[in-house]
Amino acid sequence: MFTGLVEETGRVAAFEPAEDAWKLTVAAGTVLAGTVVGDSIAVNGCCLTVARTGGAHLGFDVLEETRRRTNFPALGIGALVNLERSLVFGGKMGGHFVTGHIDTVGEIEVFEPRGRDHYLRIRVPGKCGGYLVPKGSIAVDGISLTLAEVAESSFGVWIIPHTLSATNLAGKKAGDVVNLEFDLLAKYVEKLLPGRVS
What we know:
Layout: E1 8-17, E2 22-27, E3 40-43, E4 46-54, E5 57-62, H1 64-69, E6 80-85, E7 104-114, E8 117-123, E9 137-140, E10 143-146, E11 149-150, E12 154-159, H2 161-166, E13 177-182, H3 184-192
Antiparallel strand pairs: 1-2, 1-6, 2-5, 3-4, 3-6, 4-5, 7-8, 7-13, 8-12, 9-10, 9-13, 11-12
């Protein structure tokens, strides 16, 4: 379980296929503290298990299913990824509950400065618009954001300067693909009330 408050950005050092899984290696700093093999780290919002540690790097095994559901195929060497260690009970709780299980990917339609703020609009696939509620929460590449505008197939959010400087958003542009995790409550409501979410 995560909060969607990104601790740092890491850089992809390697991402290569192997016989059993894809091997992702990320150079990191802050999230290395106290992290051991077997711990969970959200990488662009996707919960991955630390399989290797060494120096200033963390290694993860990425299944084909995970690659298919995320924006990981677009990760090249040197790409910035958002990193967050799993939630520690008894600590601060900001953001919202994020499981690290990516629901789908979305495409950035607009990302631009508007006055002193930055506006981000993302298109969602299919019938995913039913999960979007004005002033509700969404995780975009693992970043907890508040929905400011909701349309049938897209949503808009405003980005504060801290989020822009502390995450990989500064390098994003229209056409880029981002990982999306919808609010857990909306998914439970859909399960309990079939046909109510469109």
